[in-house]
């Protein structure tokens, strides 16, 4: 599945970028570290759920896991926006991650929609 491989690779690369960002955030105590933990959980969960979906036991299971991945991508987008709004990280530094999280949400929304219709 070409599309599946693409989304798997993109979500993996996205997770790696989130991990690197969280490593930097963890250098600061307090709020930055707390937000980093939330971001790390959701940002890495996107790809993990996509990977699980590839080994799903049914179409319904596939759709459910892809739906969770989409929700996690939305949550990650939220945490990234919050980091910007609270002046923890400059928007210019996070614009690429914000854009990729939006694209992942759009792709996953389409996959879930198509899976439900098929």
Low-confidence runs: none
Distance between the termini: 16 Å
CATH architecture: Up-down Bundle
Fraction of helical residues: over 70%
Class per helix and strand makeup: mainly alpha
In DSSP terms (H or I, runs of 4 or more residues), the helix count works out at 4
Q: In CATH, what is the class?
A: Mainly Alpha
Q: Could you characterize what this model shows?
A:
The structure is a single chain. The protein has one domain (2-117): de novo design (two linked rop proteins) (Up-down Bundle), CATH 1.20.1440.60. It has 118 residues and is an all-alpha fold. The mean pLDDT is 94. Helix 1 packs antiparallel against helix 2, helix 1 (2-25) runs antiparallel to helix 4 and helix 2 runs antiparallel to helix 3. The protein contains four helices and no strands.
Summarize it.
By secondary structure, this protein is an all-alpha fold. It contains four helices and no strands.
Layout of helices and strands:
Elements: H1 2-25, H2 31-54, H3 59-85, H4 91-117
Helix pairs in contact: 1-2, 1-4, 2-3, 3-4
Key words describing this protein structure:
118 residues; mainly alpha; de novo design (two linked rop proteins); 4 helices
């Amino acid at each position: 599945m070409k599309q599946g491989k693409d989304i798997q690779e993109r979500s993996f690369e996205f997770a790696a970028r989130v991990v690197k960002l969280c490593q930097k955030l963890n250098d600061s105590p307090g709020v930055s570290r707390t937000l980093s933990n939330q971001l790390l959980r959701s940002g890495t969960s996107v790809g993990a759920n996509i990977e699980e979906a590839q080994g799903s036991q049914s179409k319904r299971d596939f759709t459910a896991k892809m739906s969770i991945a989409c929700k996690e991508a939305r949550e990650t987008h939220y945490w990234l926006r919050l980091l910007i709004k609270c002046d923890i990280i400059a928007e210019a530094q996070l614009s690429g991650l914000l854009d990729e999280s939006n694209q992942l949400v759009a792709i996953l929304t389409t996959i879930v929609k198509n899976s439900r219709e098929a």
